[in-house]
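Section 5.1 Outputs to date
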Amino acid sequence: MASPNQQYHATSKPVTVNFPFFKKINLYTLLLILFLCTFSYLFGSWRNTIVSIPCDPSKPTTTVTEEGKSLDFATHHRAGDLDVTLTPEVRTYPSCNVNLSEYTPCEDPKRSFKFSRHQLIYEERHCPEKGEILKCRIPAPYGYRNPFTWPASRDYAWYNNVPHKHLTVEKAVQNWIRFEGDRFRFPGGGTMFPNGADAYIDDIERLIDLKDGSIRTAIDTGCGVASWGAYLLSRNVLTMSFAPRDNHEAQVQFALERGVPALIGIMASKRLPYPSRAFDMAHCSRCLIPWAAFGEQYLIEVDRVLRPGGYWILSGPPINWKTHWKGWDRTEDDLNDEQNNIETVANSLCWKKLVEKDDIAIWQKPINHLNCKVNRKITQNPPFCPANDPDKAWYTNMETCLTNLPEVSTNQDVAGGELPRWPERLNAVPPRISRGTLEGITAETFQKDTALWNRRVSYYKAVNNQLEKPGRYRNILDMNAYLGGFAAALINDPLWVMNVVPVQAKANTLGVIYERGLIGTYQDWCEAMSTYPRTYDFIHADSVFTLYDGRCEMEDILLEMDRILRPEGNVIFRDDVDVLVKIKKITDRLNWNSRIVDHEDGPHQREKLLFAVKSYWTAPADHQKESTTSS
């Protein structure tokens, strides 16, 4: 027998040993092993089938979890079964106190009052320190129901979901909101449009064209319950509404319950969390912002986020003050001075006043700064900003200088590039890409990304065909939106997507998203989002946890997702399989049902998907009664 140390020489013959008996045994053994392996493989494949896509798309898709339970994407708590509360089993992440059911970590009134009242700095974002972050789950109020489906949600919201009647009294004359039995009704009124937002928008449309597709994105500063944005949706105008968390309790929360895009925010000392040249139209209806104060920085900030040729619409004080000054409880001189100051600032920004008719005034930003720079040789107020990044807008101080527009050759050129009209602009190559301002992102990159997300969303709908059912999801969040491909693939569905570009992302692509006619915001996912609990019906998280690996705790991001996701809301995580396994361990302890699903290209991809459903649970009935009484 050859020694284990015997060297092999290419010229020598190998030693062979014949064992006929073992040859015979090996043949039977091999056949048996082959049979067992085949059976085990087939049985294992059947046992671990991750998702079953039904032939009949009308049947709701369910996914079988490892525990044998069905992963159900449908809702079950629209109007009944309201006695469901937490089951008594012990969980790693307990329920927070019911008094925190509307907790907004970075706009917490208790923390805010520690900061300066000057320039309303106390109402800006002030997030908890690492040791102050809550490790519990925010409860829904007792009796919480899934919101009305769109478009009914524009006009109705359940009282139990936002149990506040204050606005029904304070704004009764203005037709903001009415309480009717178990629900609120939104007549569509506002402070300056008591006859309804639709009629008010009709008045605006007589002054500028809202239907030719040139106006797609809008921003509403101090939005109330967002009726202006709600009624613009029927005209294919997508509005980012924002208002502070102040004495008008829950105004942004009402907007979100209505299925209208909104964020908590304020014009104070920091830039708004949007890129430059984002909005085709900006609006203020008695928003009480001191436009000419603090070095004129508020109108300068509106100028930064307005697209070249964009419109600024102002109604309410001081517009038409000669008619309303007594009702506004202000002197004629005071209102006249305010209007003159606004006119002066707008003029210094090179805006053109298009019209003032009754209670509405409209200015237009120039399409480029050629003439404006000529005028700056005469007056330097405000000066142009030195070279900086006009898209930087996360905890960035407002400036009292005019943001430069991209250079042009002629007076007819649109700075930064002219956009196609909606809906063509959705899939046209955005100017920020075609002009090469985003390193490494080309027209080909954009087109491939668009095709990729069309295919991916089709796969999502095959796994969870609730995505194809109109009304099942209305408010959707994409936590790492890149070029907005996910939102673009859903454009024909009755929903809207808040596209987030994380501040840690390699490329600042939020400007591209707005050039496509979509909306979004900047966000650091190591902090809480500026929104109320239960904002979103559906959350999409593409490579978020790989991006934030080592930056902050995975559980803190997941607890924030749990806070802003509605009961029975859905999540799709897309990430490396090892990351998804870690995520699943935590979501199991959040009482979510979930299942890891193969990549759309098959099982051999390391990137996989985790489909998850947040369980329905609320605060117990007795605690809710105590909370209602105390409030």
